[in-house]
Design a protein that fits this description.
By secondary structure, the chain is of the alpha+beta class.
Length: 832
């Protein structure tokens, strides 16, 4: 009967929209409690008939929790668009009565290997559709939740008695809502499976990402987004034994479950983890064989980057499992495997969710023991040493890295007293000590891991993410624990202050992370500001390049009003602003022409078709969330029709070509004095369109010999830089580098654009070193090309400037160490 119903689902699309019953998904040898509401009775349609919108998903989950004593529901916060981040806890009513004791006993077993964990319930976290346009997961969550609430019989009783299920019905509410709207508003009465139909091609920026266009399946480790903070808090609160992550892939594929490619597993992941993953896979295979659904394993994807949902658990004593279902991208689509219907994709996800629970039930003791052993080995291998990180001139970057560690329940301590290690000063209040003799020391190692040798040269995601480089802080290992002060239980950002009221002027060092936020607010108050183009000393204080000067005289505000405004701005931006009594300095004086006036900035950014969505989202988030600076997003659909003369800076995230009319418009704008900032592929287009003169190193491969047809793709794939970290020398006197205290910088790179250096050294303010690789993978061919090239260029065009970056300075919201490069380009571009 089920097979016949599925056949109808596949074939009936030609005349009317597909019809499907709930029984299509559910096991038939189980009875169901009639008191539990079905999805249709609450949301008004069957699972898979329409794409579930997040509001309806929430409504159903709340209805289930209200009607079933097996379910409690928790609202853990809001997305950027104010949607709730729900978590269902599903187990027996008896377990619910003792749920906190169960949780505490579970955690205790990870802290003490003498505790008998054999009778504990296993904890399974099931999460769905972190990519909003991979909706079969969240739609399957409707059926999974119903089954767990309504199914009756000895097997479900045994499962719930011995399992605590944490069900996250939508990892990405904003993206899910965006995609559901697209799929539903483009659905025809007569379902059309033609892949060329509009239904199957979303508009920019598509539903994969969250509100600010972030791929949230890369944020499990950095924890920068509200959705991530909620689920990471739940993860560490429970330390689940298994976490499932339900995705979709190309329509012509089948179904994937882990393990991934064995040679691409992170070396920090225990082999036993992979062995257990493979054993769990046998339960998936059995379930899919019974249905006749195609599947594969161990042939793609990987377990290397710990920022993904299927890999993050592996460094935390859990087992992460990735599911990838071929996507219908709408309601039914023609594929090489026949017409792929949306209900079929949902059924496969539902089946994988249940096969996971079956594996958890049968392997419970074994998996619980693995987790206990993982933490025992972790505690035993922790050295009686510590690591330290900080920046003596930037408390905010250090704070934000410490904040990430605390999200992961890693213990951090104050620096007991200022000290110097490897030529770097670690200052109390600006630095943090992390003891390695703690439970999560493996996770600490993963965060700060440096790796340049690999078994495999292909990566599904980045090959490096070393946090001290990402946050741009000084770092040292193997520090004596005697350097550690008190443990920090209440982490607070350093307070911002104005030293005293001045009738002469104020100086704001540009080193702190949030100085661009402060400068923007100061200018918005109508205050004139200047930037120091040279170093100087005023009284006992030394000031670096980029120091901001706010004179008191000849301003629109009175001296007391200026003082009050600066106090508020300093507090909100966590910066120190120093009052001064004299303009006479050691070095340039405050009235010198070496203090250059700063114009009020009005920033725009090109978005839409042809523009990289993730990159534009990162910039939008940086300006909007971090620096409280408005950015006008100009969509390519109407860009050529709007006046742009009012903008001082226009940013083009990575793009190959924006068209002839847009090119002409932009060129005229730059020539009239605008600052154009382009990233990655935009650099090639700008060079080709004669905005800027660039000479690129030609990427090429060595002669390929001895490579079989089967392996030819591996050779070409190995030339791609999927994400690695490189060192560059910087000229701190150049405005692009204002605010940096060191002469070197760590840059994230995931491109093979190599710009040749200029013959004039002062035109190379950022230049890769002779051996620039700090962490990650680069092929031997590209390693030869990258050395001594430049990732940044600026040239005049008429009255304006054209600035290009080959690297992403705003990567995934956690690369704080290079965010200031963009801000310098915006505020000081006209001085370059």
């Amino acid at each position: 009967m089920k097979n016949l119903l599925f056949l109808c689902c596949c074939l009936s699309f030609s005349m009317t929209a597909q019809q499907v019953a709930l029984s299509y998904y559910l096991p038939t040898d189980v009875t169901y409690n009639q008191e539990i509401p079905t999805p249709k009775s609450i949301i008004g349609h069957e699972v898979g008939e329409w794409h579930i919108t997040h509001d309806k998903l929430v409504t159903y989950m709340k209805a289930l929790a209200a009607s079933s004593d097996r379910i409690t529901i928790e609202d853990r916060g809001k997305t950027f668009e104010d949607r709730p981040l729900l978590l269902l806890t599903i187990t027996t009513p008896k377990n619910h009565q003792n749920i906190e004791s169960i949780r505490e006993n579970h955690i205790a077993g990870t802290n003490n290997d003498a505790i008998d964990i054999s009778k504990n319930p296993i904890v399974v976290y099931q999460g769905f559709s972190i990519h909003g346009n991979e909706p079969s997961g969240s739609n399957a969550a409707l059926a999974v939740a119903y089954y767990l609430a309504a199914a009756e019989g000895a097997e479900i009783d045994d499962l719930l008695e011995n399992t605590v299920i944490l069900l996250d019905p939508s990892f990405n509410p904003d993206g899910l809502q965006r995609f559901a709207h697209w799929a539903n508003t483009n659905r025809s009465k007569n379902t059309n499976p033609d892949p060329n139909d509009r239904e199957y091609t979303e508009t920019w920026p598509r539903g994969r990402t969250n509100h600010y266009q972030f791929d949230m399946n890369r944020d499990w480790l950095p924890v920068q987004l509200p959705e991530s903070k909620a689920r990471i808090a739940s993860f560490h609160k429970w330390l689940p034994n298994i976490l499932t992550d339900h995705h979709e892939m190309g329509s012509n594929a089948s179904f994937f479950f882990q393990p991934g490619i064995p040679s691409r597993t992170n070396p920090l992941t225990p082999q036993r983890n992979q062995d257990l993953t493979k054993e769990i896979a046998s339960y998936h295979a059995k379930a899919f064989d019974k249905m006749g659904s195609l599947y594969y394993s161990e042939e793609s994807f990987d377990d290397f980057y710990y920022g993904k949902g299927s890999t993050f658990p592996d460094i935390n004593g859990s087992i992460g499992i990735l599911f990838e279902q071929a996507s219908s991208r709408g309601h039914a689509q023609e594929t090489v495997n026949g017409v792929l219907t949306f209900p079929f994709t949902i059924r496969n996800q539902f089946t994988a969710a249940l096969s996971t629970l079956e594996a958890a039930r049968k392997m419970r003791t074994k998996i619980l023991q693995y987790q206990q052993d993982f933490y025992q080995e972790s505690r035993n291998s922790g050295a009686r040493k510590a690591l330290v990180f900080g920046d003596e001139k930037d408390a905010a970057k250090s704070y934000h890295l410490a904040e990430v560690l605390q999200h992961h329940q890693i213990k951090i301590h104050e620096v007991k007293a200022n000290f110097t290690e490897n030529g770097k000063t670690f200052k109390k209040g600006y630095s943090y000590v992390v003891p390695m003799n703690q439970k999560n020391q493996r996770l600490v190692k993963a965060m700060f891991d440096v790796r340049t040798q690999f078994k495999d040269s292909l990566f599904y995601d980045v090959s490096a993410w070393t946090f001290n480089h990402a946050f741009g802080v000084d770092y040292a290992e193997d520090i004596s624990l005697s350097k550690a002060g008190s443990e920090i239980l209440d982490l607070k950002m350093k307070a911002g202050v104005v030293s005293f009221k001045s009738d002469y002027g104020y100086l704001m060092p540009w080193n702190e992370y949030y100085t661009p936020k402060a400068l923007s607010a100061i200018i918005e108050k109508g205050l004139r500001t200047k930037v120091a183009m040279k170093n100087f000393k005023n009284g006992e204080n030394s000031y670096d390049y980029g120091t901001i000067f706010i004179p008191v005289q000849n301003q629109k505000l009175s001296s007391i009003a200026i003082f009050q405004a600066l106090k508020k701005i300093a507090k909100e931006s966590h910066v120190v602003i120093n009052g001064v009594n004299t303009g006479l300095n050691d070095g340039i004086d405050l009235g010198s022409n070496n203090f250059s006036a700063i114009a009020k900035q009005k920033v725009a950014m090109l978005v839409g078709d042809g523009i990289a969505g993730n990159a534009s989202g990162e910039i939008w988030h940086l300006l909007d969330q971090r620096f409280d600076m408005p950015v006008t997003r100009l969509d390519m659909r109407y860009f050529t029709r709007v006046a742009i003369s009012k903008y001082t800076a226009i940013i083009i995230p990575s793009s190959a070509n924006i068209g002839a009319k847009a090119e002409e418009k932009l060129k005229e704008w730059v020539q009239e004095g605008g600052t154009l900032i382009g990233y990655k592929n935009t650099a090639k287009w700008l060079a080709k369109s004669k905005f800027i003169k660039l000479a690129f190193e030609a990427t090429k491969m060595d002669t390929i010999a001895g490579v079989s047809f089967e392996n030819k793709g591996l050779k070409f794939g190995a030339q791609y830089i999927g994400g690695a970290i490189f060192e560059a020398n910087i000229d701190r006197s150049h405005p692009i580098n204002f605010g940096y205290k060191n002469d070197k910088i760590a840059l994230f790179r995931n491109s093979t654009l190599f710009i040749k250096a200029d013959t004039k050294s002062y035109n190379n303010p950022i230049q890769y070193t002779e051996k620039p690789l700090l962490s990650g993978y680069i092929s031997s061919e590209n390693a030869k090309l990258i050395k001594n090239t430049v990732p940044f260029k600026v040239q005049k065009l008429g009255k304006g400037r054209v600035i290009v970056f080959t690297d992403n300075t705003n990567f995934r919201a956690f690369w704080l160490g290079t965010n200031k490069l963009l801000m310098n380009a915006i505020f000081f571009g006209d001085k370059m």
